[in-house]
Amino acid sequence: MSFISEFKAFAVRGNVVDMAVGIIIGAAFGKIVSSFVGDVIMPPLGLLIGGVDFSDLAVVLKDAGESTPAVMLKYGAFIQAVIDFTIIAFAVFLGVKLVNRLRKQEAQAPSEPAAPTKEEQLLTEIRDLLKEQRSS
């Protein structure tokens, strides 16, 4: 098997395609969550704690020089990342919980009884014929 055909077999395998779709959707979901946190959650939270914008919180370790930028410890960006992570983790938790609940309901749902085998059908016919003969 040549390298190209081997790669093609790998690339079109279902798991690889599913993983690629998951990564693309995950990236898009990450943008949505980042916007939700940055544009919806953080402004009221900042207002509650006195109008502080977390992304601007930093400690200057060394002032900027003529040709060098300032060295800053941007702990506000870290706080923002922790809040983003917490919200994303909670959303994933809710999604997994929902999927597990649906799987549990599916497993508990009564399945259709199996169709009778040919032997069972023949035995049922014999039983019914014997009942008819006795009643006649």
Automatic annotation (TrEMBL):
Topology in the membrane?
Multi-pass membrane protein
Q: Which GO terms describe its cellular component?
A: plasma membrane
The family database entries (Pfam families) matched by this protein are listed as: MscL (PF01741)
Keyword line: Cell inner membrane, Cell membrane, Ion channel, Ion transport, Membrane, Transmembrane, Transmembrane helix, Transport
Keyword Membrane included in the entry's annotation: yes
Membrane-spanning residues where? 16-37, 77-96
- Please give one Gene Ontology molecular function term for this protein: mechanosensitive monoatomic ion channel activity
- List localization entries: Cell inner membrane; Cell membrane
**What does the record give as the function of this protein?**
Channel that opens in response to stretch forces in the membrane lipid bilayer. May participate in the regulation of osmotic pressure changes within the cell.
What assembly does the database describe for this protein? Homopentamer.
Question: Which family does the record assign?
Answer: Belongs to the MscL family.
- What protein name applies here? Large-conductance mechanosensitive channel
Per the UniProt entry, what species is this protein from, by scientific name? Azomonas macrocytogenes
- Which gene is annotated as encoding this protein in its UniProt record? mscL
